[in-house]
Amino acid sequence: MTNRKPPVRRVYVRDGSYYWVQPYTERWKKLCRVEDGEVRMLERLAAEKAKIEKIDGTGNIPHLVDKYVRLHQKDHKEKAWPAYGRYVKRGFADVDIDQMDVPYVRQFLKDNWKDKPHMQRVMRAFLSGFFDWCIDQRLMTTNPCRDVKLKKPKPRTTLISGDHFAAIRECMLTFTYERGGRQLTAKVPTGPMMQCFIDLCYLTAQRSTEIRNLRWTVDPKDPDGCSWVDRAAGVIHFRPSKTEDSSGVTVDFKITPEIEAVLERARGIGRVKGVHVIHTKQGTPYAANTALKAWKVAKKRAGLEDVRYTIKDIRAMALTDAENAGYDIEALKETAAHTNEKQTLDYIKSRNVPTSEIRLHVPLRASA
Predict the structure, then answer these.
(1) In the predicted model, is pLDDT for residue 31 greater than 80?
(2) SS3 label, residue 305
(3) May I ask the CATH architecture of the domain 162-348?
(4) β-strands 28-33, 17-21: how paired?
(5) Which of 48-52, 217-221, 257-261 has the lowest average pLDDT?
(6) Residue 165: CB atoms within 10 Å
(7) Which of 106, 147, 267, 305 is most buried as measured by Cβ atoms within 10 A of its Cβ?
(8) Distance CA 149, CA 254 (A)
(9) Cβ distance 282 to 219 under 8 Å?
(10) Does 3 have pLDDT greater than 80?
(11) Nearest by Cα to 65 from 126, 125, 144
(12) Mean pLDDT across the stretch 66-91?
């Protein structure tokens, strides 16, 4: 190991790489290789500092949240989980843990996510875990989140029509533009893979996260927690990340001829082959925001920019179409990896609007 005088404060060179010694934790965070240059090092340093930015305040909650996140981050696969801690640090910068009560929590959720009931529930769950940890540390005696009641988010009623889905799907492949007074058509480099992505979202009725993380083979480091294609058994083993820490419900989805065709298309795309079915040119899995951007751009090209379709609506479309095809609610519940029928019905009810056949006549006075 080699140590040199740091080019900036708390940055050191070790084994040919720049490392930043994080304040408070004293952990060594690798920034980049020395040969990458100091400009790259400074870029990485700024990015890492932003992740653990110091919140100016008089309370002890920010420090406790940092410690809680550091100790429990490995138990949460959701990439956004550490960001929830930053929201709490900003909201309670001047609050000590022994001051925390129910009104503080209610006001925090109302001020930041007034019209976002789903996010309110996410943050209440994070805070509840944090407060339980504080109780274990003998820093408080009760969890204020236990008395914070929230409205359940209303199920989305948006249903993507077949024609609109097909139009968005086609617009993922090409786009048109004008040059020299002529209308030209060009191919989207990432289009074929993005088509495979939404096709699998529909054909399997799984969450987009599971499709983005779907692997060709089992992950030896996490064999029970990954979703992967099992050709020998003829199924895809889906291990939904959303249920992993709660119900633990999983589903094995049969590889139908339609799914097999999409898998073969994905396998033939690009020169670099990664372990993930849906992968970038570098062989890495797509980030959620990248997939969402591709969806929004294709939606705009299809002339549907003002229609509130999201990638999440593909799952509801698939389950609704499956019900229309004659599959019963039990089969749909198993496919969706739900624990009860009510969860599945939230995706389907109010989407198929019934047509009433009742015919009445307006009463009239009988003639004399």
Answers:
(1) yes
(2) coil
(3) Orthogonal Bundle (1.10)
(4) antiparallel
(5) 48-52
(6) 19
(7) 106
(8) 40
(9) no
(10) no
(11) 126
(12) 89
**Region 355-363 average pLDDT:** 89
Interacting residues of 124 by C-beta distance below 8 A, sequence separation 6+: 105, 109, 145, 148, 150
- Domain range annotation of the chain: 11-51, 61-147, 162-348
C-alpha angle with apex 116: 111 to 117, nearest 5 degrees?
A: 105
In this predicted structure, which of 160-169, 279-288, 341-350 has the lowest mean pLDDT?
341-350
53 vs 238 pLDDT, higher one: 238
Q: At what angle do helices 312-324 and 162-171 cross, to 10 degrees?
A: 140
**In a 3-state reduction of DSSP, which class is residue 320?**
helix
Report the candidate in 110, 97, 70 with the shortest Cα–Cα distance to residue 86: 70
Distance (Å, rounded) from C-alpha 7 to C-alpha 12? 8
Which helix (H) or strand (E) is 112 found in, with range?
A: helix 102-112
pLDDT at position 282 over 60: yes
pLDDT tier for residue 1 given thresholds of 50, 70 and 90: very low
Output the six-digit token pair for 25: 């934790």
Residue 346 phi, psi dihedral angles, 5° rounding: -60, -30
Percent helix, strand, coil in the chain, to 5, is 45, 10, 45
User: 61-147 falls under which CATH superfamily?
Assistant: Tyrosine recombinase, N-terminal domain (1.10.150.130)
Cα–Cα dist 196/261, whole Å: 10
How many CA atoms lie within 13 Å of 55's alpha carbon, on the beta-carbon side? Answer: 23
pTM for the whole structure: 0.71
